[in-house]
Amino acid sequence: MRLSPVKTRLRASFFGTVVTLTDLLPPRLRYGYAHRITRMLFSGPLSTVTPAVSRNVSSAAVSNAPTPDVTCAILADHLDVGGIGAVVEMLASNFESVGVRPVIVCHGDGKRAQSLRQRGIDVHSVADSASAQAALAGSGAGVLQLHSAPDYLERAGMATYLPIVTVMHNTEIHYTAKKWRAYTALMERSAAGVAVSETVREYHAQHLSPELGQRITVVPNGAPALSSASTTDRQRARLAVAEAVGTDIGNEVLFICLARYDSQKNIAGTAVAFARAARVHSDIRLIFAGDPSDWAELRRAQALGDLAGGSRSIHFLGNSDAATLLTAGDVFVLNSFFEGWPVAATEALAAGLPLVLSEVGGATELVSRDPQFSIMTPNPAGDAAGISDALVRKARRRSHVQPGSQALEAAIGTVAARIREVARPLSPRSSPGITDMLCSHAQVLREALRAHAREPSSPESR
Length: 462
Hints:
462 residues
């Protein structure tokens, strides 16, 4: 039901106040309690896109895959939250192709953990220190790889004699001084570190001594290459999207944003900029799809988008089938405040979509792989190199006048014009390969094992 302009403005103001008050809370309270309350108060049904196409995924296996000679325990948080779970899934599903047997120890259970078990991967769901220690003791691991694991799981890993490789996925703007001290202690205990982009490496190295900073190497996130979409695939996918949003999309230029409804992803700012661009370009449409981790952010984005005139051209969906959305779409857009290396954007490039990305970790590398169509825009918080919680809070309060919003509007129009001139669907782009990612991670793990074996105190050297 479409609200009157007055009611829409009041709704935007109300949710803007909720977001501002929430941002004043420390991250621990913001994510641990405030989001639970807003979920209870503001949640509601969201349409979804179900699978309508099946695009073949190229195998990541290396020819003549060796018999695994390394067992790696992958320590992680809940696998169903964010892009880290997708990276863990890629590694665990394909590690054996480079001679690494994976064992996952993660916080809690869920769909991704259950799916990995069904594929024969050893997954231990834990909830506390005792269960974490028991899982690690029985894992048979020779090396540990940490992916933003919760504190209790991180401590359990540090308590073992095993070598540790710490993987850094993001620019951690919410870290307190205490958390940075804990991170430094973890790196002192780690044989090596892996950053998913040069931006992430530099961000973390600022908080370490030069010696510890040298332990960090960059391994970009990859994505499996998809087969080219057929005309039939595209027709089926666009019909599925049209059914989900309740309107015919015809031959419009369809922008896709696969992201959580979360402060990091800047959904509200993206909606405002797109609504303004749609005033000029009447044949463009934007589909958001993801998990509403912050319902106040989602409701505010809806209201601000409507206020800017985007009620016809912008749609907000829940978690949906990514392959169908990427097959239906023409452009992938992500206007985040910060990222380590956006997995969804990597998958979109592999599916054949041009990218419109804000200046975040991995954006320069990804856009450079498709200079004909893709565009990088200024960071919506203003200072990409010095991104901070304070800058993000300020930009959130100013979703209608963020730095770089005009550049984003222009980029949307430019890419739409380029897309109109070519036959669709486009062929898959050159995306960072998953095989390169696997080989690089396996090399770091083996080097950590060799270094550990040379230490006098390690059991292997006795």
